[in-house]
Amino acid sequence: MKGKEWYQADDIAREYDSKRFSRGGQLIDQREKAAVLDALGPVEDKNILEIACGTGRFTVMLAQQGADIIGLDISRAMMQQGREKARRAGVEDNIEFLRGDAARLPFPDDHFDAVFAMRFFHLADTPTKFLTEMARVSKNQVFFDTFNDQSLRVAYNWLLPMGSHLYSANDVHRLLDNAGLSLVEANHDFVLPFGFYRKIPNGIAQPFRSFDLAVGDSLVGDDVASVSYWNARVPSATDAETRAEEHASDAE
């Protein structure tokens, strides 16, 4: 089973977290959650939208931090797992799970303090449209990750059930420009791809992660990283006016 049908199957949803974030995958889960928290900063009382929330790993975490959050996904089965997590964590009143299309978000402009998506853009068939919609409904911030086209992920990318779109840095910069977003910060990680960590016990994964981090801190680290985290800002009206004045000045 491939593509959207695979992602929306009940048995896939039930096993999704255990297959990806147990064993060495725990290191992936920890790093991704840290990336989201670092990017969004204090989230208490913030109004946040998560695109492709899946089983609610980040949705529930941010609700526990005091955010009011909507998690949007195409899979009812995945969101049911998220609702159960929210109930167990006692934060169901802070979360709304909504089935919807990320290319046509059912929200007005500038509705959220921040909008983010994890594990989404490698599946996006129209990434410019999705990112533009995320920028439209955000007042301030858009955060997302990508898998990179010059990394070890290339070696097994074709095996993945839903396929995977890999990006270069130039690809992402074009997406940001087309969506009218300004890049604030980019972080790059995981020389060894996610699939490697998921296959080995956590105790064995730790030394490999230490090696991974050492390579990541070297001069070639950013170039060989398999994952990038992109933190972008929605320009304010003042920013737009400044750019217009600069363009007018250049034209004179």
From TrEMBL:
Organismal lineage: Archaea, Methanobacteriati, Methanobacteriota, Stenosarchaea group, Halobacteria
Any Pfam family hit: Methyltransf_25
The protein's name in its UniProt record: Class I SAM-dependent methyltransferase
Gene Ontology MF terms in the entry: methyltransferase activity
Every Methyltransferase domain range: 48-140
Claim: Transferase is one of the keywords in the record: yes
This protein's UniProt keywords: Methyltransferase, Transferase
EC class (word): transferase
The organism of origin for this protein: Haloferax namakaokahaiae
GO biological process, one term: methylation
InterPro entries recorded: Methyltransf_25, SAM-dependent_MTases_sf
Domain of life: Archaea
EC number: 2.1.1.-
